[in-house]
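go over this record:
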Amino acid sequence: MKESDLLTINLNIFEKQLPLRLTIPREKEETYRKAADLINTAIKEYRKQYQVIPLESILSMVSLNFAVKSLTSANDKDMQPLLDELNVMDAGLKSYLDTLVSE
């Protein structure tokens, strides 16, 4: 890949003071920016719901959630089973975090 096909961008993942600096293919910029927005939105939602849970646990849950979505969608063309599985996983994660909050 030619250097002119690359672009250096800065992405902020959850309020980091120093941005994440990446060199990516120019045509993938929008994808990377949307991915960062999805991550930030997920982190904010978990932080809002589970304010006393350490950030490391929140980041782990967000990572797991995205990994499961990615693997499931790659292996399954029918979206309904994916949605059903994600709903079950989401309920399980919420239940787990609720037990941590109540301790």
